[in-house]
Every structure is written in C-alpha cells, then in structure tokens.
Write a structure and sequence with these properties.
Length: about 170
C-alpha cells in the first residue's frame, strides 16, 4: 500500500492499487460516465464514487479540466523562456507573481542550473511573443531572459500518465 501526503502534510491518505487504477482511468478520460467506469473496473458505482470523493477530498485529485488545442485558436508561437533573476530568493513566492499572472504564461518553474526560472509561453504571433517577453523583462526582479522557440512538440504534458501501466487485482 502506498502512502501519500495530503495538503496538511500528515499521512492519513492510503492509496491502494484500486485507487491507482481509478486515477489512471480518470487521467485518461475524466468525463467517462461513472457507470461505464465502474463496469470497466468491475466495481459498484457507489463504491467507485466514494473512492473518487475520498481522492478529491485528500487533494490527490486536485481538479478536472479540458485539454484545449490552443494552436487551433491561433496561438502559434510556443516559447521556453529562461529567466535569470537579479537577486537570490526564489523562496519569495511573490518574486515573479506578475509574470505568473500573465495569461500567455502557461507554466513558471523555479529551477537549478544556468537560469533561475523557466516560463513556458504561448502567443498568437511573433509580435505578441515580443510583447510578452518585454513584459517579463520589465519586471524589477528579472536580470535577463533567453528564449527558445519550440519548433516541434513530441509530447505534451497532458500525455504524461505514469499510472498507465498500473493494474488492479481485478484486471
């Protein structure tokens, strides 16, 4: 049995192999009807619902969302922006708060290595990307940025599912 930490940091949540299979299935298709999923997993729909509610309450399942094809909406520019900050203090969560709040910034990470942060940016055009980069660069905490344009995407984050090989005793 695997133990997981909840938001409070204690070890109250026990995740068993059935929970892992439920998580695998939710990750693959969270809109599947409950009865269909229960039938596939060979469990009663009420039992399945109780387990899902427990996973949600313990914050293992944090939210459900739609996978949107932003390129189809005109966001053709995809860039990885390495950000070097002026001072140390990445533990200061407000340091790049305005960068994280930019709608074009898909993700923002504090990292080790040559950069202090990495931003994943989606923009509609080259001019739009330049505007976003300038907005990042005017932040008082930013010393410099280095940008890389994404030419080909081989795997998207929504395809990440390390539970894809998990099986339950019933399968």
């Amino acid at each position: 049995m695997l133990s997981n930490h909840n938001a409070g940091g204690d070890m109250k949540n026990k995740v068993d192999s059935i929970d892992l299979v439920i998580l695998r299935e939710l990750r693959d298709d969270c809109k599947r009807p409950m009865r269909e999923l229960a039938q596939k997993l060979r469990m009663h729909p009420n039992t399945l619902l109780q387990r899902i509610k427990r996973l949600e309450k313990s914050k293992i399942v944090r939210r459900y969302h739609a996978d949107i094809d932003y390129k189809a909406l005109g966001f053709d520019m995809h860039a990885i922006v390495m950000i070097k900050i002026r001072k140390s203090g990445l533990e200061d969560e407000g340091l790049l708060k305005n960068v994280a709040a930019m709608p074009e910034v898909q993700s923002l990470y504090a990292v080790t290595g040559g950069a202090d942060c990495i931003a994943v940016v989606k923009a509609k055009s080259r001019d739009d990307l330049v505007r976003v980069l300038r907005a990042i660069q005017v932040n008082d905490s930013v010393l410099r940025t280095t940008s890389y344009l994404v030419l080909v995407t081989y795997k998207e984050s929504y395809e990440f599912n390390p539970l894809s090989n998990v099986t339950s005793p019933k399968e």
